[in-house]
Write a structure and sequence with these properties.
The protein is mostly helical. 69% of the residues lie in helices and 0% in strands. It is built from 26 helices and no strands. It has helices at residues 2-10, 20-31, 35-57, 62-76, 82-91, 97-114, 123-138, 145-154, 167-178, 186-196, 202-217, 221-235, 242-251, 261-277, 289-299, 302-308, 310-319, 324-328, 334-348, 353-361, 363-367, 376-392, 395-402, 409-421, 423-431, 439-446.
Length: 449
């Protein structure tokens, strides 16, 4: 019964569900002791499956097309086609030597069982044929997995392979293409995509990049392991891959899990390099450093980030401190938030006008953080710092104070609430700053209409 149970379980591995009925009948024969029938039914399913897959392969392979046409003619003329088909597939390299030998073995067992030779098929032979037929043929997508990959890689030169720039569309296309491949083909596919990235044809190179990013965005455990080993670890040694590695991490930061220390250091250096020169305007773009940080923050604890990617985080504090996607991703990560708020306060009250003006000009974005990252005390400290910069002559800060922080209503409300609830502490904060006058003077100058 154990053998029968194993045979039943194998049915789920059949890629073309039309052949499940064939193999279920084979099990019925086996269960009834008709081992000859089990072998014959398995044999029929095997060669019908190969013939069908040959038809699919014929659409993308010239040799397969010629063999398929000859086989279909033999079938139409009611001639035996099995041996011819197997021999031709082997001669053209469309059938691996090991599988060709398995075919011959199954064929020999079938001939012994089907002809009145006086030799009876055994249960062991029936189970063997049944298992080989499913595991090595019916359970695989094409005769030889590399041909499907080669056809796919050939499509990379098409400018319409990815008709839109949306990552959701890219992911959907990649998922559809991968569904046509056997899992054993994935390492070969990734290797070919990496080769295609080096193509002199710009379209091929870009599509290879997008396909790999699309694979990463699937978040599949098996695919992730391969991408980590074959792409991240391999590509992070080359400075030219800074943007590409960043896009891969935006798609799935878990690609960085379990890397060696040296690989984290390499990836971090690439992220920093790209952040310094990035011109990616939209944060929806996977090349945007803020999106890369969001992916990191979503996938890992802050101690991991500080240990392995502190330089990248520090670079974003310099380059993108007011980008909502960046600072919103830090919620719940106290150490990172403290570093961010320290930077904001420093920038808000900076004596360097360019720095202070950039902060004041980003006040609408800062206002989004109130109640999330900015509490009431931090809100007061920010408004005081802006007042200091205004007193020093930073024109954006002066304009902001003159407007009574009209573009930051949540910041104003939180500041007023802190003053109302904790007046003594508010007075102390004012007194310790360079802002002249009392708390009442500050409120009148900066907060009240």
């Amino acid at each position: 019964m154990g053998g029968l149970t194993d045979m039943e379980e194998l049915l789920s591995e059949i890629s073309n569900k039309e052949f499940v009925d064939y193999m279920r009948e084979a099990i019925a024969c086996y269960n009834g002791g008709a081992y000859r029938g089990c072998i014959v039914m398995s044999y029929i399913a095997l060669f019908d499956d190969i013939r069908e897959k040959l038809g699919e392969l014929a659409k993308v392979n010239r040799d397969a097309k010629k063999i398929w046409q000859d086989v279909e003619k033999r079938v139409g003329d009611q001639e035996v086609f099995e041996s011819y088909m197997a021999d031709q597939l082997k001669s053209k390299g469309l059938l691996e030597e090991k599988k060709y030998q398995r075919l011959n073995l199954v064929r020999d067992l079938r001939n012994k069982a089907a002809h009145p030779s006086g030799v009876h098929a055994t249960a062991e032979e029936a189970r063997f044929v049944f298992q080989v037929v499913i595991r090595e043929f019916l359970g695989e997508s094409l005769l030889k997995t590399t041909h499907a990959v080669d056809a796919l890689v050939g499509d990379l030169k098409s400018s319409n392979l990815f008709p839109t720039q949306k990552i959701s569309d890219t992911k959907e296309i990649v998922e559809d293409e991968l569904s046509k491949l056997h899992e054993k083909a994935l390492p070969y596919l990734i290797a070919q995509l990496l080769n295609a990235r080096e193509s002199s044809d710009n379209t091929t190179c870009q599509n290879a990049d997008r396909f790999l990013v699309g694979m990463a965005s699937m978040g599949s455990g098996e695919v992730r392991v391969l991408l980590r080993k074959m792409v991240i670890i391999k590509c992070c040694v080359d400075d030219d891959n800074a943007k590409f590695i960043g896009r891969m991490i935006s798609a799935d930061a878990n690609l960085l899990d379990c890397l060696a220390k040296k690989d984290h250091a390499r990836v971090c250096k690439l992220l920093v390099k790209h952040a310094k020169v990035s011109k990616s305007g939209l944060t929806s773009n996977y090349a945007h450093p803020a999106r890369q940080m969001k992916s990191l923050a979503s996938g890992f604890e802050e101690d991991f980030i500080l240990e392995n990617y502190e330089d990248f985080f520090s670079e974003l504090l310099t380059q993108n401190p007011y980008t909502p996607m960046f600072f919103n991703s830090l919620q719940g990560k106290g150490k990172l938030v403290d570093r961010l708020l320290e930077k904001w306060k420093s920038n808000a009250g900076s004596s360097t006008f360019e720095v202070a003006n950039k902060f004041a000009g980003s006040i609408e974005e800062i206002d989004l953080a109130v109640g999330k990252l900015l509490d009431e005390q931090a809100s007061l400290e920010i408004t005081v710092a802006v007042m200091e910069a205004a007193d020093w002559g930073a024109f954006e800060a002066k304009s902001l104070v003159k407007s009574k922080f009209s573009d930051a209503p949540k910041l104003v409300a939180a500041t007023k609430q802190f003053i109302a609830d904790r007046e003594t502490e508010a007075e102390s904060i004012i007194a310790s700053s360079s802002v002249t006058g009392s708390l009442e003077d500050f409120v009148a100058a900066a907060l009240e209409e």
